[in-house]
Amino acid sequence: MVDEEVSRMWGWAADLLALNDIGALSGWNESKIYGPVVQGFEAHAVHRVTMRERAHILQSAVRTRLEAAATISRGEYEAGLTHLRDCRSRARDELGTVDVIALPTVPVVAPAIGTKNVTLGTETVSVREALLRNTRAANFSGLPALSIPVATPGGLPAGLQLVGRDEHTVLRAGYQVLDALGVSPERRFGLESNVTPVQPVWSSNAPGEPRCTL
After folding, report:
1. pLDDT tens, 191-200?
2. Under a CB-based contact definition with an 8 Å cutoff, are residues 26 and 141 in contact?
3. Of 37, 135, 167, 212, which is most buried by a Cβ count within 10 Å?
4. Lowest model confidence (mean pLDDT) among 124-133, 176-185, 188-197
5. Is the dihedral of CA 96, 160, 108, 141 positive or negative?
6. How far apart are CA 68 and CA 96, in angstroms?
7. What would the pLDDT profile of 9-46 be if each residue is shown by its tens digit?
8. Of residues 54, 28, 50, 13, the one with CA closest to residue 143
9. Which is more confidently placed, 74 or 112?
């Protein structure tokens, strides 16, 4: 699910880029369950000494998350790693003939400072969870990704995320998207464009779900 502004941006971008195939990003479901487990356990391991000796220097929200992460067992962490490795071992194969998957980078436009929660459809989630939801899946899959800023009708920024089988392919697709959006690589980066078009890209007709094609 995405908010109204991102949904309008996504519909416009999907039409402009002729995104038409529907597919799932490997790790989309697993990352929601096991991503926080792996991340939390490792974060607590890194900051264990700080938590024990200088916890007062941490922001309260960070300290609260690390305290919660301290309850994650080694067994839960190992189980999370097993799912992560399995996801990464099949991620490229599951792309099939698709080069790139396109989806919103985050399901909401930039939230106002101090916002605690946002509403996505009928679901209310924390801002942190909303901002991590779509990018966490790419991280979990181990596939390279980039985000291209896209304006929304309301003026606040959103992003179009591209996830693909290798960095070269993702960057080539990014250049093509910039061209389609009317922001040429030459104008944006002062570079000469020598980009070979990629094969059709993936995406998803359902707002917030992975959709696609260049």
Report:
1. 444 444 444 4
2. yes
3. 212
4. 188-197
5. positive
6. 39
7. 888 888 888 876 666 677 888 898 999 999 999 999 99
8. 28
9. 74
Cα–chain-centroid distance for residue 155?
A: 21
HSE-up of 80 (CA within 13 Å, CB side)? 19
pTM of the entire predicted model? 0.78
What does the DSSP assignment read for 48-112?
Answer: HHHHHH-GGGS-HHHHHHHHHHTT--HHHHHHHHHHHHHHHHHHHHHTTT--EEEEESSSSPPPP
- Cα 132 to Cα 84, 136, 145, distances in angstroms: 17, 6, 14
Whole-angstrom Cα distance, residue 11 to residue 91?
A: 26
3-state helix, strand, coil in the chain (%, to 5): 50, 15, 35
Length, in residues, of the chain: 214
